[in-house]
Design brief:
- By secondary structure, this protein is of the alpha/beta class.
- The chain is built from 21 helices and 26 strands.
- The chain is globular, with a radius of gyration of 28 Å.
- Helix 6 packs parallel to helix 9 and helix 12 packs across helix 15.
C-alpha cells in the first residue's frame, strides 16, 4: 500500500524558491554548425538559437550590429520631417519652446537630451515635469496653460502625450503648436497635435520599432542637427543619454537599440558630460576590459566598456529614485550642467534619495509580507491574485514592492495605498499568463483612472470599491490562471558543467551584449551540485561555494544568491540555475555565479537510501492524484511516477532521457528536462522528500 503525504502531519521542511523551470529545447546540430561558421562556442551558438536566430546571416547581424543596414528615420516616421521643420522655424524666429517630460528615467533623460541639443542649436527652450504625487503621469491642462502664460509657442512632449487628447486640444485652442514624441501604446483616439512621433505607428518590421521615449527624442534631435548642419560635438552626448534612458526604461535591446546602446556603453566611461561622470563616480562603476585574450578572430572589440547591468542596477536606480520620491529638477540639472561641481552635488543628492528609496522599499516589503502571511497566504491557491492595500505607504515605491511580491508568491500583485480616507492609488505587476491591462479593464466600472500593459499597470479607485475590486480580480484570475501557473517562470538556456566555466566562455558571452529585454542575460543550469560552504552576508544574501564532480575531479566556483535569507540553509545537494558574473577584487578577476534558481536534485539522498528499500508517496499535480516511488532496477535506483490512467514515467538519477508507457516493453523514450516532465518530477521529489524527512 502506498504511503500518503498529508499536509497536516508532514514535518515542515526548508523552503526552496517557488519556481517553474522551463529549459529551452536544444538544437545541437545547428548550434555546432553556427559555432563553426561564427567562430564561437557551441554554448554561445545555442544561446543565439534561443533568441530566435535561425540563419547564419541573422547570427552575423546579431553579433555585429554595425553591419545592420538602417533605413533613414525620415523614411520610417511619417511626421519626422514636419517635426524638424517646426523646430527649425521656431529656432529661426526665436520662438519659445517648452518640453513636457515624464518623471521616470526615460522621461528625464529624454528631457535632458532635448534640452542640451536644442540649446546647443540656438533654441530658447525650457521644460516642465509633472509631479508624480500631485499631477500623475503626462501633460495636463494646468501645464499647458502655464506654458501659454509664459509665452511658449511650441510644446514638445517626451515619453508622454499619445493619450493626452484634452490637454493637447486645449493647447491648440490657445494657439500653441504641439509635437508629441512618445513610445507608449496607441489609444483609439489620437490627440490633435501638429506632429506625432511614435514607433508604435510605424511598421512592426522596422528596426526603430522598439525605441523608448529617449530613442524618439534622440532620432528627432539628430535629424534636426543634421538638417541644420551642426552635428559636431552633439552626437556623443546625446548617445550617452540615449543609452542611459534606454536601458533604465527596459526597452528591448534589439534593432537600433542594440546597435546604439552597444556604441553608447563603450562611450559612457569616457563621456564628456559631467553628469555622467559624476554618476559613474558616485555609484562606483568601473569600466571593464572586453578583449578576449589575444585571439585575433574574436568578435569582441570593446577595450573598455560598461555593461547594461551597470546602468540597470547602479546608475538607473539613482535616477529613477528621484522620479519616485524626489524632485526631477535634480536629475535635469545633473544631466544638463557643464559644471563638474554642480554635477557632483546633484549626483550626491541622487545617491541620498536612492538610499532613502531602498530603505522605504525594504520597510514596505516587510510590512507587505507580514500582512500577506497573516491575511492571504492560506487562500493564494484559490484566489490566484494578491490585492494588498495599506495606509501610509509611499506611492512612488510600491511598484518595486509589487515586483518583489510577484517574485516571492508567484501570483499577480495589485498593491496600493490610501491617498486620503476615500481614495486609493496603486500599481500592478503580472505573471506571463495574466494580462494586467485586461484585468484592469475587467474592473473598469470600479476604478477611477487606470492604464498599463500586459505586465504592469497603475490604477486609482474609491476606497468603498476595494472589496468589490478584490472579488472581481479573483474572478478574473481564476478564469485565466491554473494552479500550475502560480510559480514564477524561470527560463533556462542550456546546461553547462563547471569544467566549461572559464574566462574564455565568459568573454565569448560578451558577443551577446548588450543584454536586456528581448535579449536576456544567459541563464545556465547544472545538475547535482554540492553546496560546500554557505553563509548569510549583507542584507540577507547567501554567499556560497559550490562544487561539481566530473570523472572523479572536483570543480569549485563561488556564488551569490541575492536576498535569499528565507532559503538559508540550502540543501547539501541541489540543481542550480544561474547567470555568470565577473568579480574584480584586489587586481584579481574571477568568474562567479549569481544564483537565480535552485531545486532538489534528482541525485539527492532519495536515490541512495541505505539499506535500499522502496520509498513511496502520493501527491496532487494539476488537480490530479499521482503515485510515485524510488525503486531498484538491477543495481540502479530509479524514480517511477504513475498517473491515474496507469501510465508510468521512469527516470534514473543523472539521466536526461526517461521512459514513458504502460509497461517497460512498450515505453517510449522522452526528454525529462522538458517542462511537462520536469515539473511533475519535481512535484514527486518534493513529496518523497517530505516523506523521507519523517522517516
Amino acid at each position: 500500500m502506498l504511503d500518503v503525504v498529508r499536509p497536516e502531519t508532514a514535518k515542515p521542511r526548508r523552503r526552496l524558491p517557488n519556481q517553474r523551470w522551463q529549459i529551452y529545447p536544444q538544437n545541437a546540430e545547428f548550434a555546432q554548425k553556427l559555432a563553426v561558421a561564427s567562430n564561437i562556442s557551441p554554448i554561445v551558438s545555442q544561446l543565439l538559437i534561443n533568441r530566435g536566430i535561425e540563419t547564419l546571416e541573422a547570427a552575423q547581424t546579431f553579433l555585429e550590429p554595425e553591419s545592420l543596414i538602417l533605413p533613414a528615420p525620415l523614411e520610417e516616421f511619417p511626421d519626422l520631417a514636419i517635426s524638424v521643420e517646426l523646430l527649425q522655424n521656431a529656432i529661426a524666429s526665436e520662438e519659445k519652446i517648452a518640453i513636457c517630460g515624464d518623471y521616470d528615467a526615460d522621461g528625464m533623460t529624454s528631457t535632458a537630451l532635448l534640452l542640451r541639443s536644442l540649446r546647443a542649436l540656438g533654441a530658447k527652450v525650457d521644460y516642465a515635469i509633472p509631479s508624480r504625487m500631485h499631477d500623475g503621469y503626462g501633460i495636463n491642462k494646468r501645464i499647458v496653460e502655464e506654458f501659454h502664460s509664459e509665452g511658449v509657442s511650441l510644446i514638445l512632449t517626451v515619453d508622454n502625450g499619445i493619450s493626452a487628447v484634452e490637454p493637447i486640444a486645449r493647447a491648440r485652442e490657445l494657439g500653441l503648436k504641439v509635437i508629441v514624441t512618445d513610445h507608449h501604446d496607441i489609444p483609439q483616439k489620437l490627440p490633435a497635435a501638429n506632429a506625432i512621433l511614435n514607433p508604435k505607428l510605424i511598421a512592426e518590421s522596422s528596426p526603430y520599432r522598439g525605441v523608448a521615449g529617449v530613442g524618439v527624442a534622440y532620432i528627432l534631435a539628430v535629424s534636426l542637427a543634421q538638417q541644420l548642419g551642426e552635428t559636431r560635438g552633439l552626437i556623443q552626448p546625446m548617445l550617452a543619454l540615449f543609452t542611459l534612458g534606454t536601458i533604465a526604461d527596459l526597452a528591448p535591446l534589439t534593432g537600433v537599440n542594440r546597435r546604439w546602446v552597444k556604441r553608447g556603453l563603450q562611450h559612457l566611461p569616457k563621456s564628456h558630460l559631467p553628469g555622467i561622470q559624476a554618476l559613474i563616480q558616485i555609484a562606483g562603476v568601473q569600466a571593464r576590459d572586453g578583449e578576449l585574450g589575444n585571439n585575433p578572430k574574436s568578435k569582441i572589440q570593446n577595450p573598455k566598456s560598461l555593461k547594461p547591468e551597470d546602468i540597470g542596477f547602479r546608475l538607473g536606480p539613482r535616477i529613477n529614485a528621484i522620479g519616485r520620491i524626489g524632485d526631477p529638477q535634480i536629475v535635469i540639472d545633473l544631466l544638463t550642467t557643464d559644471d563638474m561641481g554642480i554635477a557632483l552635488e546633484r549626483a550626491m543628492q541622487c545617491e541620498g534619495v536612492n538610499q532613502q528609496r531602498q530603505e522605504m522599499c525594504e520597510q514596505i516589503e516587510q510590512e507587505a509580507i507580514a500582512y500577506v502571511e497573516t491575511e492571504f497566504v492560506a487562500s493564494l491557491q484559490q484566489d490566484r491574485v494578491l490585492v494588498v492595500i495599506q495606509p501610509n505607504w509611499h506611492h512612488g515605491v510600491i511598484g518595486i514592492v509589487a515586483s518583489r511580491l510577484v517574485e516571492r508568491y508567484g501570483v499577480p500583485v495589485f498593491i496600493g495605498t490610501y491617498e486620503d480616507e476615500t481614495h486609493i492609488r496603486g500599481s500592478a505587476r503580472g505573471i506571463p499568463e495574466f494580462n494586467v491591462f485586461e484585468g484592469l479593464q475587467a474592473c473598469h466600472d470600479l476604478l477611477g483612472k487606470y492604464g498599463g500593459h500586459k505586465a504592469a499597470g497603475g490604477y486609482s479607485l474609491p476606497a468603498q470599491n476595494l472589496s468589490a475590486l478584490r472579488s472581481r480580480l479573483i474572478e478574473f484570475a481564476n478564469q485565466c490562471l491554473e494552479p500550475q501557473h502560480l510559480k514564477p517562470l524561470l527560463k533556462i538556456d542550456t546546461q553547462v558543467n563547471f569544467s566549461e566555466i572559464n574566462h574564455q566562455l565568459y568573454q565569448q558571452l560578451n558577443t551577446l551584449h548588450p543584454c536586456g529585454i528581448d535579449n536576456p542575460d544567459p541563464v545556465f543550469w547544472t545538475p547535482n551540485v554540492q553546496v560546500v560552504e554557505q553563509q548569510i552576508v549583507g542584507k540577507g544574501h547567501i554567499k556560497l561555494t559550490l562544487a561539481q564532480t566530473i570523472d572523479h575531479q572536483q570543480y569549485k566556483i563561488k556564488a551569490i544568491a541575492w536576498r535569499w535569507r528565507d532559503y538559508y540553509p540550502l540543501p547539501s545537494r541541489v540543481d542550480v540555475a544561474y547567470k555568470l558574473r565577473e568579480n574584480n577584487f584586489n587586481g584579481n578577476t574571477n568568474i562567479e555565479m549569481e544564483l537565480i534558481g535552485v531545486r532538489l536534485t534528482t541525485q539527492s539522498h532519495l536515490f541512495f537510501t541505505s539499506p535500499p528499500r522502496p520509498l513511496r508517496a502520493t501527491f496532487e499535480y494539476k488537480q490530479r492524484q499521482y503515485s510515485c516511488g524510488i525503486f531498484q532496477q538491477g543495481s540502479l535506483p530509479e524514480l517511477r511516477i504513475k498517473n491515474p490512467e496507469g501510465k508510468v514515467l521512469v527516470m534514473q538519477p543523472g539521466q536526461t532521457i526517461g521512459l514513458l508507457g504502460n509497461s517497460r516493453e512498450d515505453a517510449q523514450e522522452v526528454d525529462v528536462c522538458q517542462p511537462q516532465y520536469d515539473s511533475i518530477i519535481q512535484a514527486a521529489l518534493q513529496a518523497l522528500s517530505v516523506l523521507s524527512s519523517e522517516s
